[in-house]
Amino acid sequence: MTSDHDHDHDHDQAEQTVPLMEEQLTVTKRKRVTDRVRVSTITETVDSLVPVDFSDVEIDVVRVPIERDIDVVPDIVTEGDLTIIPVVEERIVITRQLVLREEIHVRRTERRETSDIPVTIQRQRAVIDHLGPQTEGQIISEEETHDDL
Q1: Rounded to an integer, what distance in angstroms lies between the CA atom of residue 100 and that of residue 90?
Q2: 3-state secondary structure the chain
Q3: CA triplet 47, 51, 53: central angle to 5 degrees?
Q4: Which residues, in sequence order, are CB contacts of 120 under 8 Å at separation 6+?
Q5: What whole-number distance in Å separates Cα of residue 129 and Cα of residue 41?
């Protein structure tokens, strides 16, 4: 004979079924026009002054009489901006001898000056116009994804 106590014990060991639930999330994305812009360029002509350096060289020639007896023809000598060019002649005396008759001194002087020269140049600038959306909420493309969040 089974007692109530044994009957409850058999009932606890019987299988019980518990339903399980799962939620899934699907995300859909849409691209919408929220604003539009137009970019254009404008070319302008601008007159301006451009500084340009000019230089010229003045030559000052001075004849320096020397009249000195020499044994060999001297070399041309440059000392800074001064160039000395010897001028030699032969003179017949009882013997032949070299005489430094004169030197020609050539001095270079450089002048610099800045002048403004009018020139015409071109440059561009960008103009951006905000046009707004074509129609409110217009869908450009639609793509569907199944990303789990």
Answers
A1: 9
A2: CCCHHHHHHHHHHCCCCCCCCCCCCCEEEEEECCCCEEEEEEEEEEEEEEEEEEEEEEEEEEEEEEEEEECCCCCCEEECCEEEEEEEEEEECCCEEEEEEEEEEEEEEEEEEEEEEEEEEEEEEEEEEECCCCCCCCEEEEEEECCCC
A3: 145
A4: 45, 46, 47
A5: 11
Give pTM, 2 decimals.
0.37
- In the structure encoding, which two tokens stand for residue 78, read together? 């440059």
Q: State the Cα–Cα distance between residues 103 and 55, nearest whole angstrom.
A: 28
CA distance 43 to 113: 33
Q: Report long-range pairs for 74-77 (Cβ below 8 Å, ≥24 apart).
A: 74/100
> Which of 59, 51, 114, 116 has its CA nearest to residue 82?
59
Query: What is the per-residue pLDDT across 31-85, written as a single tens digit (0 to 9) for each?
Result: 888 888 888 888 888 888 888 888 888 999 999 999 999 999 999 999 999 999 9
For 131-148, the pLDDT digits (tens) are 877 655 555 544 444 444
